[in-house]
């Protein structure tokens, strides 16, 4: 837990000045609270013992502190929250970047629902680390030190008061590990609950078609109950910590009084002061043990974040990438590849050459490994044997972004984002003028359709292109792949979801769409109209010349 | 907030426990005052008072823990109820609801969780914020009426300060929730297409954009908090003012033969106890405000009347489908998806819907699945108006395979059994066999018991499609609705599956939307749709 929290702290390094400033303000605020109660105590004590001037002075000073204490509290809250949110925003972005690096091919098992839960809930839990533990601890530490100094003249009073307070201050450290286990459990159950909610929603049509709503509701209710049981344990620990904190601070207060009774009249003034300081400590330290739960929740969140992001990238970036080669020849030499260990490899000794401007189709049934060829080329995965070269250079030695810039790829699951058509297209070519977008749309055979939409290029696509029919969405994704000026174009089942006539009319124009680029067409069937130079068949993990 | 009323019973226990804690605190203040009076040389208490005080401290610890447990129970019950109702509602709305999955999940998980504070902390805090200070004012009046008056005035000032600051917070909080929803929606959306972003080297830009959204989130949250913290500050100001005033008043008088020193000290010590429930209230107040923001999003969903409709009296063994002049328009789309479509399909007959994409093939199936309602015209099943049935009942009649089959978390077997949970293992295997699932499942490490993740990771589109077909086989419904069932299959598998489909459709009423010329090999009637209108209808 601690190592994870330290790592979080390091992650926030650039925000340290703001975060430390928040701590300093918390200390100032705590000290002003102590000052307020000291003056009130001295005033009362002076009144009793007839302390004349001191009493009057104390009561005069009391007035500004009545304003200063709440003002510094407000300032403390604003400064600490602002700093925490800045740090959190950084964490979100960091997490996204890491995922892009570690899961470039998309998210697999674990599910996006759970990942979303991680980002929002776990990252948000990290703010408890700072706001719920570190900031109050800074204030409490300042308060305990101030009290120790004010009462330091009487060692026994110091022991009776400061010791329980100090205990309340360090208690979170002792309580945190057990609470951390409860928090890990609660966070995991919450992730499962989210997955139970997301899964039937993501497959909404299938859920409804099977009349499986009651079963899905039951599963969600079970996950919900499991989450609440875990939360209950966490809440129970928090409540216990809270009770401990209250008891310790109140015992400190009673300890001060006991010292007073023991010391007799001589200690009266100091005992009154101790009482008022005890009241101040009640507020500042009473909630401290609860920080243990905050630490634990944050620690559990951090653990899960790091677990997700610490998986090694599927393809290591070369430390010193070779310069991008001029040549455009693409070669696979004896490539062997399987997605999972223990399963037969999808590609087994595959050889392939794609010459510049050549148009090549690879035919094969679904699951034969056509998409794996593209994944290897895009460096979403690395071959377990053999090598792939571009212009003579092994792509393992090339920087992935530069390599990807040379290849335009229409994946089978190419996704339209919940954004405008224009923004979706510009993902492939930032800053492309509208005219270029229209040209790409026309090439994909969807120009007329988009022109007919009331909002044209500004039409929103909906999540995953849900606003359009499958064929329309596919063609917009196709237009996006045609947009960048890449050397090699990979089209993976480009006409899936298009009717025969539309598919045919698109494939006829493939020659112009390529505009001199090399083309790798991955498909399970050919219509015969494709302007191809060569057709290969993928079977048993190798490429064979297509018969006929 | 209608839920609040139903919760009243559950709140009684935490409130009673809270009140008991307050009474303990008053007793503690009194005992401390007696000891302090002794210290100051007046007649007061001694060690025995201190002992009782220590016991009270322990009692308060126990009460506090019990109160928290009771509050948590109240929150649990409320959240479970809300989540169940909301999920049922989202299912009822079906694909007609245009919210994305991320947004729906945010409603179902985060918004409902955000309401926890309302039920667990806000409702008890409201009751205690009135009852506890009132009790203390009564006790204070017995000791010193001026103190009681000061506390009363301060107590009345608290809601004034809160109202002033709270109104702004509520308005801000609502806007902030929108941003939170957008952030969460955007994240799932971009994460699902992570590989699309990576391949175009745009992940970095998106990360930056995500940073901007988070920055906006921060700015908005700070705007809410600026006001929210002010009201806490008002409270602290009042508390500090009370203490200072009472310290001055009693401090100035104590020396000069104060008539009742114990009462005087008692009055000062009551101040923290007086403000404690108000402070809890103030913390919970902002929880309630953010809950209100969340509730505003949930309320329209929860308060909508439940879907009405008839239930099936019995499962008809055969279904005749008849469309008469059926039209379907989607909101915001000037072109109708279907325009006065008329056709009929009898039991034992298969109808192929063909036509260019966007011609309304899927819409016909969606109408029959109750995912959409016709804008005009009549859809009859065995002569009865289909729209009078509850959509869920309508779906019981059919086995449906959509364009994008979804695999749920679980084993392949569970995924097939979804269509008929009471099916035996042999029936599931038979369905898997018929849909050619076995031809790839056999090669998987655990066969049909292989886990498949969300979105069907590890299975190709064609394999997913075959799992969906297996569901249709298992379902054994009189009406078969297939939307592009072979689009992701290679010709070899397609031929195999075709034959399976032919067997599936035999003796049943079947409607298949397709592009594939292969499917035309089925002995079927073909209905050509063009731009939402039926063009030709001919028997092959």
TrEMBL record, chain A:
<dbReference type="GO" id="GO:0005524">
    <property type="term" value="F:ATP binding"/>
</dbReference>
<dbReference type="InterPro" id="IPR036640">
    <property type="entry name" value="ABC1_TM_sf"/>
</dbReference>
<dbReference type="GO" id="GO:0016887">
    <property type="term" value="F:ATP hydrolysis activity"/>
</dbReference>
<dbReference type="GO" id="GO:0140359">
    <property type="term" value="F:ABC-type transporter activity"/>
</dbReference>
<dbReference type="InterPro" id="IPR011527">
    <property type="entry name" value="ABC1_TM_dom"/>
</dbReference>
<dbReference type="InterPro" id="IPR017871">
    <property type="entry name" value="ABC_transporter-like_CS"/>
</dbReference>
<dbReference type="GO" id="GO:0005886">
    <property type="term" value="C:plasma membrane"/>
</dbReference>
<dbReference type="InterPro" id="IPR003439">
    <property type="entry name" value="ABC_transporter-like_ATP-bd"/>
</dbReference>
<feature type="transmembrane region" description="Helical">
    <location>
        <begin position="157"/>
        <end position="180"/>
    </location>
</feature>
<dbReference type="GO" id="GO:0045454">
    <property type="term" value="P:cell redox homeostasis"/>
</dbReference>
<feature type="transmembrane region" description="Helical">
    <location>
        <begin position="16"/>
        <end position="38"/>
    </location>
</feature>
<feature type="transmembrane region" description="Helical">
    <location>
        <begin position="129"/>
        <end position="151"/>
    </location>
</feature>
<dbReference type="Pfam" id="PF00005">
    <property type="entry name" value="ABC_tran"/>
</dbReference>
<feature type="transmembrane region" description="Helical">
    <location>
        <begin position="238"/>
        <end position="262"/>
    </location>
</feature>
<feature type="transmembrane region" description="Helical">
    <location>
        <begin position="44"/>
        <end position="68"/>
    </location>
</feature>
<keyword id="KW-0067">ATP-binding</keyword>
<dbReference type="InterPro" id="IPR027417">
    <property type="entry name" value="P-loop_NTPase"/>
</dbReference>
<protein>
    <submittedName>
        <fullName>ATP-binding cassette subfamily C protein CydC</fullName>
    </submittedName>
</protein>
<dbReference type="InterPro" id="IPR003593">
    <property type="entry name" value="AAA+_ATPase"/>
</dbReference>
<dbReference type="GO" id="GO:0034040">
    <property type="term" value="F:ATPase-coupled lipid transmembrane transporter activity"/>
</dbReference>
<feature type="domain" description="ABC transporter">
    <location>
        <begin position="330"/>
        <end position="547"/>
    </location>
</feature>
<dbReference type="InterPro" id="IPR039421">
    <property type="entry name" value="Type_1_exporter"/>
</dbReference>
<feature type="domain" description="ABC transmembrane type-1">
    <location>
        <begin position="20"/>
        <end position="297"/>
    </location>
</feature>
<keyword id="KW-0812">Transmembrane</keyword>
<dbReference type="GO" id="GO:0034775">
    <property type="term" value="P:glutathione transmembrane transport"/>
</dbReference>
<dbReference type="InterPro" id="IPR014223">
    <property type="entry name" value="ABC_CydC/D"/>
</dbReference>
<keyword id="KW-0472">Membrane</keyword>
<feature type="transmembrane region" description="Helical">
    <location>
        <begin position="268"/>
        <end position="287"/>
    </location>
</feature>
<keyword id="KW-0547">Nucleotide-binding</keyword>
<keyword id="KW-1133">Transmembrane helix</keyword>
